[in-house]
From TrEMBL:
This is Alpha/beta fold hydrolase. It comes from the Archaea. SUPFAM superfamilies: alpha/beta-Hydrolases. Residues 23-253 form the AB hydrolase-1 domain. One of its GO terms (molecular function) is hydrolase activity. Keywords: Hydrolase. It comes from Haloarchaeobius litoreus.
Length: 269
């Protein structure tokens, strides 16, 4: 276990695995770095992986007041802890962290699986944080987190008994409920985030999405693709928002191909 201190003094904990050039993995609204377990053995033979816990999750600390900018600073602190310019690979909220952190850090490449970006009419009407807070205020943290899972993972299409059955098979439930207050503040920050019209990263970016993901996340990844000056968008048939867990080999192979292509382009320039 290693640690780095973020700009506001918060302790961010991370682990290192493997050998090779550096890659930083940033998880989304998961319980912690364990989200990356299916991916880690596939990448650790090729990369030195730095896998961190977000603030308020796993073994990392937390400091009030919360803000998206502080989460971005956490990602930058982790990036600064590695030797050389890393590939930064983020999922969901971690995907947004990866993109924003790379605006102010030298990285080899950015990979983002469905970065948590809300756009258009969906963003204008977004009220998930308020609806979750309503259940929290009523003394129902489990109900609040069910609203989060229903919206973020299932796009509002799974509810009632069907949602309960799915949750019974989900390995991180009910531990996931303990992070409900963190999820509320995260959603509130995402509802306020506005995607810039143009994002000119120095590093190439790979954006990933699945055909079974919620429509608002698919809209967000397409909007990010339009904003980023140098990006490639790949869509996986049949995968949901949890694609890196559902089909880690397929996702990793796509990442490998992208990085090999960008290295080849850099060599010929």
């Amino acid at each position: 276990m290693k640690r780095v201190t973020s700009a506001d003094g918060t302790r961010i904990v991370y682990d290192r695995h493997g050998e090779g050039p550096p890659m930083v993995l940033l998880h989304g609204d998961a319980t912690g770095k364990e989200y990356w377990k299916p991916v880690t053995p596939l990448l650790s033979g090729e990369y030195t992986l730095t896998i961190s816990d977000r603030r308020g999750r796993g073994r990392s600390g937390d400091t009030e007041p919360y803000s998206l900018q502080r989460e971005i600073e956490d990602a930058r602190a982790v990036i600064d802890s590695v030797d050389g310019e890393p590939v930064v690979f983020g999922h969901s909220f971690g995907g947004l962290q990866a993109i924003e952190a790379a605006r102010d850090r030298a990285v080899r490449a950015v990979v983002a699986y469905e970065p948590a970006i809300l756009v258009g009419e969906y963003r204008e009407q977004a009220d998930l944080a308020a609806r979750m807070q309503e259940r929290l205020d009523a003394g129902d943290p489990e109900g609040a987190m069910k609203r989060h899972v229903k919206e973020v993972i299932h796009g509002g299409e799974l509810e009632g008994a069907a949602l309960d059955e799915w949750l019974e098979e989900w390995p991180v439930w009910p531990e996931y409920v303990t992070f409900v207050e963190d999820s509320v503040r995260m959603n509130r920050a995402l509802e306020s985030y506005e995607l810039p019209e143009r994002i000119d990263l120095e590093a190439p970016t790979l954006l990933l999405t699945g055909t079974e993901a919620p429509s608002h996340l698919r809209d967000g990844v397409r909007a990010a693709h339009e904003s980023l000056v140098d990006s490639r968008l790949v869509e996986f048939d049949g995968l949901s928002h949890m694609g890196p867990n559902e089909a880690p080999e397929q996702v990793v192979e796509t990442v490998r191909s992208f990085l090999a292509a960008t290295d080849a382009e850099a060599t010929t320039d």
